[in-house]
From TrEMBL:
Record-annotated RNase H type-1 domain positions: 1-141
Pfam families (UniProt xref): RVT_3
Molecular functions per Gene Ontology: nucleic acid binding; RNA-DNA hybrid ribonuclease activity
Protein name, UniProt field: Ribonuclease HI
Length: 171
């Protein structure tokens, strides 16, 4: 089964010590799954863009594991995360090490191939990370973790869009 997935993370309004969120999209045959969540306690030292990127790829791969999918192509626009997971860059930051180890273990088990893509080719995952940011700001998402996964359900889409309507117009 050929599966392509995308992830992204952000930390706003400042990096570090902002609100770190992530989003991901999994294209599974005719189906599309979307996920997003809070990567770290807001405004903490662990709340960084790189932590958000790693939580995005980890949660994406945990969903692939739950679906029992092997041999996926996972794409992201973070050169640091992609190159670390491909073994091209060393992991120097102590707070990243456990995230890297978890992501690497999942990638080995799931036989994932990582590909870097420019930001323009990662728009949907980027939009989902921004949706998560707005949901955290509005107090709708409060817990750190992988959050919820949504399919193509129109009702879910309407709820997401309504929740962030003030600052986010198109998912």
């Amino acid at each position: 089964m050929s599966v392509i997935a995308y992830f992204d993370g952000l930390c706003e309004p400042k990096n570090p010590r902002g609100i770190a969120t992530f989003g991901y999209v999994i294209y599974l045959k005719e189906k599309k799954l979307r996920g997003y969540g809070l990567a770290a306690k807001p405004f903490s030292k662990d709340s960084t863009n790189n932590v958000a990127e790693y939580m995005g790829v980890i949660c994406l791969m945990e969903e692939l594991s739950r679906l029992n999918v092997r041999g996926s192509v996972v794409r992201g626009d973070s050169q640091l995360v992609i190159r670390q997971l491909r073994g091209e860059y060393k992991v120097k930051a102590p707070r990243i090490r456990p995230l890297y180890e978890r992501a690497s273990e999942l990638a080995r088990r799931l036989e994932v191939t990582f590909q870097w893509v420019p930001r323009e080719e990662n728009e949907e995952a980027d939009k989902l990370s921004r949706v998560a940011y707005e949901l955290v700001r509005k107090g709708i998402i409060r817990s750190v973790g992988c959050g919820e996964v949504h399919g193509e359900d129109e009702r879910v889409q309407e709820e997401i869009t309504h929740a962030v309507a003030d600052s986010f117009h198109e998912l």
